[in-house]
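Q: I'm writing a short explainer about LemA family protein for a general audience and would like to include a description of its predicted shape. Could you first generate the structure from this sequence?
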Amino acid sequence: MEFILILLLVVVIAVGVWGLTAYNGFIKERNLIQESWRQVDVELNRRYELIPNLVETVRGYAAHERNTLEGVVRLRAQAQQIAAHEGGAAPSEARAEAEEQLSSAVRGLMVSVEAYPELKSNQNFLELQRALAETEDRIAAGRRYYNANVRNYNTRTESVPTNLIANAFHFEKATYFEVNDPEVRRAPDVSFGEIAYRGDEPQQPGQIPPAAAPQLPNPQQAPQIPQQQGYQPPSYGQPPQAPQQQGYQPPSYGQPPQQ
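A: Of course. Here's the predicted structure. Afterward I'll give you a sentence or two in plain language.
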């Protein structure tokens, strides 16, 4: 009887220790999510501060982009209003959607100013463009870190047996800060057909043609041995005749030499 009581006591203590560890783990991961979101929120607020200066600079050189400028200003005010309402807490779906629309509008504004060379050479605009590019890079890096922490936290809230602690103490799933803009997710298109060589295309003047491909031998065709001209095999049926020397007369030993 005492053994059973001791065993039950050990089981209760083990379950209590596990529950306390799981609870502290949820608290730690939730605080990590909030901390990682603050880093993203700081960069988003920095972008709010840069956009008005960018709009005023573009307006001085590109008055025809009135609709684009008004859209950027409107989306900035909308995103800033949602951020003030949430008070720096983890982002909601409305905040993520507003920030996504604002990012798309700013990219569209940067594309439209390509038609204004004077604006592209303006020092103030170049500085704002560089600052915005750095801010967007920090936002993207912070978003990846935040979403990684959210994934770990949500996995624990749905996994067994930690989901028992999550349900008992009301640890709800966190919201991802995702980007659903197809222009951001789309990979750059690379057409290999444009760089491939086509033999039927006309050659441009001054263009060096590519080297011709070497002709491989045909294994079905036997190689031809060239015949040597002017060569006659010797006839073994007749003895060879010594060549006669022209202009040579043997001396006569029966007659004395003439004086």
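A: For your explainer, you could say: The chain has one domain: 2-184.
Q: Perfect, that's easy to follow.
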